[in-house]
Amino acid sequence: MQQLKSNINIDFSKKVVIDTNQLEWLPSPLKGVTRKQLAREDLESGHATSIVKYQAGSHFKRHSHPQGEEILVLEGVFSDETGNFGPGTYIRNPPGSSHRPFSTDGCTLFVKLNQFDKNDLQQVRVDTHSTPWQRGIGGLEVMSLHDFEGQHTALVKWPADEVFQPHRHFGGEEILVLSGLFEDEHGQYPANTWIRSPHMSQHHPFVKEETIILVKIGHLPV
Questions:
Q1: ChrR-like cupin domain spans which residues (predicted)?
Q2: Partner residues linked to 87 by β-bridges
Q3: What is the pLDDT of residues 123-134, one digit of tens each?
């Protein structure tokens, strides 16, 4: 099995598109926990964005998050001493926090490490399966997950045949396609595709089938 690498996709001036279905699972420091690397600055201490899989019974020792940790539970149940978090749970652990995570029956997570503003200290737990959607632009439905000084994270539900207005991304945009097929003039992005678009990039997105995406904007270097 290949080993983890450093310095992957950390040039934030470039667009990155990764179909994570095509990536292999790589080992982590803990037996039973594997990862798909999307962006990584330094092996275990820097900026990192990954898909992480816990096998049943896996657990980490207590560790801290010097610059925060952001998680969306994709499958299974993720746990720590604060609770058990099923599919669709959005979690933010602020800078300086620590925990002992584990999974009794196994889980798959989207994880972002060491990417918080030092003043963004809110701890967040959102069950997106029970939180109501709010009306967005056109036929879109939006579920806000977190906002901090121009940075916004949300789920967006697109009805079939929805076409959004062309727009630019001040502070960049990051998308994880959770279901359906997301599209724009540059390509098609099936479920589990990760897209990171730089500051002031632009596109004209649309869908032909119902699609749900996780969207983060305003957080990349300007």
A1: 14-116, 122-220
A2: none
A3: 999 999 999 999
**Is pLDDT larger for residue 6 or for residue 204?**
204
* Better-predicted residue by pLDDT, 31 or 88: 88
Q: In sequence order, what DSSP letters do the residues of 29-53 get, joined into one string?
A: SSTTEEEEEEEESSTTTS-EEEEEE
Q: Is the pLDDT of residue 44 over 80?
A: no
DSSP string for 103-132? ESS-EEEEEEES-S-TT----EEEETTTSP
Q: Sorting pLDDT into bands at 50, 70 and 90, what band is 1?
A: very low
Sequence-distant (≥ 6) Cβ neighbours of residue 207 within 8 angstroms: 158, 159, 160, 161, 162, 180, 181, 182, 183
CA 178 – CA 207 distance, rounded (Å): 13
Q: What share of the chain is helix, strand, coil (3-state, %, to 5)?
A: 0, 50, 45
Q: What is the mean pLDDT of the chain?
A: 94
Q: Residue 37 is encoded by which pair of tokens?
A: 């690397």
Altogether, the residues listed in the chain come to a count of 222
Residue % of the chain over a pLDDT of 90:
88
- What Cα–Cα distance (Å) separates residue 87 from each residue in 84, 108, 146, 181, 211? 10, 9, 18, 20, 17
DSSP of 158-204: E-TT-BPPPEEETT-EEEEEEESEEEETTEEEETTEEEEE-TTEEE-
